[in-house]
Automatic annotation (TrEMBL):
Keywords: Signal. This is Uncharacterized protein. It comes from Pedobacter miscanthi. It comes from the Bacteria. Residues 1-20 form the signal peptide. The lineage of its organism: Bacteria, Pseudomonadati, Bacteroidota, Sphingobacteriia, Sphingobacteriales.
Amino acid sequence: MKKQLLLIALFIFSVSAVNAQSKSSFSKGDNLFNVGVGIGSPYFGTGYSSSLPVNPSVSYEIGVSNAISVGGQVSCASSKYDGYNYTFKESAIYFGARGSYHFNQLLKLNPKFDLYSGLSLGYVTVSISDSESIVTGTASGFGFGFYAGGKYYLGKSTAIYSELGYQSLSFLNVGIAFKF
């Protein structure tokens, strides 16, 4: 009798462990909150020193299916050029919507990984000024982007992430993600 109970307990534990391991790192209803920094901007040229060494970014997404999430993102950036008694400043802010496809179940990935790609559509406002008041103004408009990224979960709800692509104000975003 003890052997049978032990075998049943071992079987239940094994099935539970397999189910826990096969649980995807992304599913319908998941809330994802990312806080990161962007590196490399399509808006600011060479020779500039950044007022912010990196471009801060926050995003939120909710899982609408076991593979698709939708949400929004806000990013900002600024730079400054100093030289020959002349200063040029530029700043930008981005508000956008984003949608991602998560490849976890399709590729049967380890639950610690979340591999995704997506599209974004946003509105950016760029302001410029210089010390001589020769160049001043603001420009804004809509733009789209694409990205591929991944998260590595350090625990049940905390991950580090990286996204590469043309989106918001940076070519590369890295940071920490929270799932709740």
